[in-house]
Structures
1.
Amino acid sequence: NAGVTQTPKFQVLKTGQSMTLQCAQDMNHEYMSWYRQDPGMGLRLIHYSVGAGITDQGEVPNGYNVSRSTTEDFPLRLLSAAPSQTSVYFCASSYSRGGKLFFGSGTQLSVL
Amino acid sequence: GQQLNQSPQSMFIQEGEDVSMNCTSSSIFNTWLWYKQDPGEGPVLLIALYKAGELTSNGRLTAQFGITRKDSFLNISASIPSDVGIYFCATMDSNYQLIWGAGTKLIIKP
């Protein structure tokens, strides 16, 4: 099993550009989430989903959109990138909310 | 929002040494989790604790859920090079969302 797959691994954007970070899981997990990791700050929840068609905001949702059209995929969209969005982004999934989280290997994003 | 205080921020140790790190909170929680993040990878769950006073081992790792339910510690015995990485504590709020510590970076001196 591949587990949680994130693409791309690295990305450089200019301020104002848009892009989508992809996340897919093959474990039939209902719960999926996006985190950002900044030095010295641990992981902060951006958005999460408890099932297809259901999404909700986390701690730091501003500037990010998500959708969940299938159980497997949970893309994260940056509509107009800002330097403050330079970070490492992790997608994670679990069988249910509160269950053991499985993380992808991350996307390192730089916004110039 | 709620915060977890994780210490130390970083540790420089010699191979073979024992390591101890801890995590404290001002609030009571019912779950404590310890994750490890290898360089360039996402965090992986090491140990989960669900009961005050619980002591759980996973190989050379031992973690305890504090009696007050406001703290937890993680010990690593006889450290080896593959132990390097960032160790995160985490707990769960009433909505089952994880609250994360800032991490302890473990570096092994050559």
Note: The longest strand of chain B covers residues 85-92.
2.
Amino acid sequence: QKEVEQDPGPLSVPEGAIVSLNCTYSNSAFQYFMWYRQYSRKGPELLMYTYSSGNKEDGRFTAQVDKSSKYISLFIRDSQPSDSATYLCAAAHGISNFGNEKLTFGTGTRLTIIP
Amino acid sequence: DTEVTQTPKHLVMGMTNKKSLKCEQHMGHRAMYWYKQKAKKPPELMFVYSYEKLSINESVPSRFSPECPNSSLLNLHLHALQPEDSALYLCASSQSWSRGTYGYTFGSGTRLTVV
């Protein structure tokens, strides 16, 4: 079993729709959770990060973590064609004091927003 | 400056060639990473440097040789690669997560083709 599982999609939704992207994880030691956006042939770009359980909102993006069910979600409101990309969830233990953390990534979900 | 710069952006090399990938950051991050990403797959960790010392080596073949000459630079030396080593090679950096900022900053990657 992979430590972080993510539905690879592809997922296509019309412009303006609310998008829900989800991951599950199996390692209870994970405390830090991140969402990255990756455009074709580019490096991943950090969108959101959260510590432990809870919600975090940044503009049209909301990240949720439920540690009791080991569930990670990213919601995109008022989706735009420019949101079309692959979205990767990631998790880490967060035990290093020196920043040399190993991120464990999900497989990524390919999202297309249809104009 | 909040960028991680990788050069070259594209590289084609023969199986007998020796080449190097370069990565540079000026954000004062003390952890730097090399990841390998195959098409439609998540990034896979290769090496982690913390304070210019190799701290994580994920059992990568010896034909890949990392080097961290100083806190801003990270190199990946390539020798006698195989066609299956063709991938997007991503460099990333991070600061201590105890400062409240989590996750990595990735470069745009070097797309490597081995012929």
Note: The interface with chain B takes residues 8, 32, 34, 36, 41-46, 49, 51, 88, 90, 92, 94, 96-103, 105-108, 110 of chain A (CB under 8 Å).
